[in-house]
Amino acid sequence: MTSNIFSKPIQKATKDNSATEQQGTKEKFWYGENRDKLCKFGKVHGENWAELIACSLATSLEIPCAKYIPAEFQMPEQGPIKCVVSESFINRREGERLINANELLAKNVESYEQSVTYKQRKYTFLSAVGLFKVITCKGLHGYTPIQQFIGYLLFDVFIGNQDRHHENWGFVSSSSPLYLAPTFDHGSSMACRISDETRLKRMRSTDKGYQINSFIASAKSAMYGNTGKLLKLHELAKVCKYHYPEETEFWVEKIVHLRKSKIDAIINICPPKWMTDTEKKFTLSLLLANQLFLKSLQTNV
Predict the structure, then answer these.
(1) pTM of the entire predicted model
(2) 11 vs 15, 37, 50, 85, 222, CA distance in Å?
């Protein structure tokens, strides 16, 4: 059964006792008694529902994920605006902190530019997975660290997340060995930024080069390949399969067995004020098309 995150009163975010969050490009701030709730505003409204749907999908797939709930923030003289709130998965009182991947990549990859978030050509699949060979860390939910990470990358393929840059994943430092942090920040997934006009055109088009299958095949990841070009998400899935076939098979099996009715139910949790019917139809088509692509990996060597 799908949990309805809209069945409870919408969270009211407030800047009382707040602290600004500097990382990333979206406006966000920590608030609450212990400053353990992160309020984040989507640049466009679609980024809000993308976070919520991605969270629900990840939970259904048993992928460790930061939890997001719908929220509203009262703007002076403007009324409430939509946003999402996530409780911190870091226990600061126990001395935990998030170490973003770029910090460790800079220490382990020669001439790696830690401050270059995009177009970082040394941010490759092999440099990323190479971290798991040089640092001691644990996984969550009984997964090995590399199994968990490959799960994140294949989840990105499923939801069309093009923003897994080196600050959008990392490790948690605690009194025990590092552990791979839950996946977070999926506001660039499921083509949430395109217009409904564009969605309708793609869904109705008779031009195969403009239809959804071509659209998802062109989506790029944030990782570079050995040729110095950005890997497309579908290419990244094949790279995962080549280097980690067992881990890839494990996650592909989970994703392809997620029923259409379940995916549709997750999408339809969002009420009309949060997500239009056109957005819902297009998002379902996109997810099913990516799911079908991943299924093809089970038969292609």
Answers:
(1) 0.93
(2) 13, 11, 17, 8, 32
